[in-house]
Design a protein that fits this description.
Elements (H helix, E strand, L loop, with lengths): L1 H19 L4 H11 L11 H25 L5 H22 L5 H19 L14 E6 L5 E6 L1 H18 L4 H12 L3 H25 L5 H23 L3 H25 L2
Helix pairs in contact: 1-2, 1-3, 1-9, 2-3, 3-8, 3-9, 4-6, 4-8, 5-7, 5-10, 6-7, 7-8
Length: 274
């Protein structure tokens, strides 16, 4: 029964994570902690093991989703690699912080910030992106309605922002997309579908770096991982297929709802320690 539950958990988390570019860790980490209280096989899961195992699973979710989104021509690979220059070291720093930091107060503050970001997305059309100088990266993209949209960013600004995104990924095992997708949409004017797809590419790269560090620290339970990986791989493909049939506004609405859920979960975790 535990294998079935874990397989379904990996599937659902990957589908939702792939649709919104979140990676799925925000679902897997608390789910493993909750399941450990009710299962004799899954007992003894520490927060570090839950985070480490979640990040390993996100490698497969991220790779599966990225391959599907590449076929749809929605992944901005060059931009993703630039973001990774910051998120890679940030992820390693987050793993280091995860070892022994007391993060209760920080969790509450971070949760409130995530909820705030959700409400900012609601009025995103009234917010002007960061001014782009001549030497910045500039791109164009044709959305689902045939409209050509322009976006871009300053590499140094993108690297700094993605460093903090990677740090949160390594620290909490949430994949980083909960901040990276809103940042790309709000600050750099990325079209929502492109932001989600590029975020999943970044999730794959960042999770690879973070999980290697967690494996070296012994923070991965391979029993749970083997049960979660098949669902994560299939879910990544399904999520990308579902995302393709959604409008930009629907993608942003789902993202906003899940950001609120993520924020409330982090606040609850900070208050209760669970």
């Amino acid at each position: 029964m535990e294998w079935i539950v874990l397989a379904l958990l990996g599937l659902v988390a990957a589908i939702l994570g792939s649709i919104m570019g979140l990676g799925g860790g925000i679902i897997i980490v608390p789910a493993l902690m909750i399941l450990s209280e009710y299962s004799s096989i899954l007992n003894g899961i520490t927060p570090q093991i839950a985070v480490g195992t979640s990040l390993l699973i996100m490698i497969f979710t991220g790779l599966s989703s990225t391959l599907a989104y590449v076929k749809q021509k929605k992944v901005d690979i060059q931009s993703g690699l630039i973001f990774f220059i910051g998120s890679g070291p940030g992820a390693l720093f987050g793993v280091w912080l995860n070892k022994d930091i007391n993060v209760d107060v920080f969790l509450i503050a971070f949760g409130i910030f995530i909820v705030f970001v959700s409400f900012v997305l609601m009025v995103r059309k009234h917010i002007k992106p960061l001014q782009l100088k001549a030497k910045g990266i500039q791109r164009s993209y044709v959305n689902e309605t045939g409209q050509t949209m322009h976006y871009g960013f300053q590499p140094i600004v993108a690297v700094i922002i993605s460093f903090f995104v990677g740090m949160f990924s390594g620290l909490f095992g949430i994949g980083g997309g909960s901040l990276m997708v809103p940042a790309m949409i709000l600050l750099f004017a990325f079209p929502p579908h492109l932001a989600v797809a590029t975020s999943m590419f970044l999730v794959f790269l960042s999770a690879t770096v973070s999980s290697i560090s967690h494996i070296s620290l012994g923070n991965v339970d391979w029993f749970y991982a083997l049960a979660l990986i098949p669902g994560a791989w299939v879910g990544g493909q399904l999520g990308a297929a579902i995302n393709r049939r959604m409008t930009s506004d629907t993608v942003v609405l789902m993202l906003r709802i899940f950001l609120i859920i993520i924020g409330v979960r982090l606040i609850y975790q900070g208050v209760t320690g669970l």
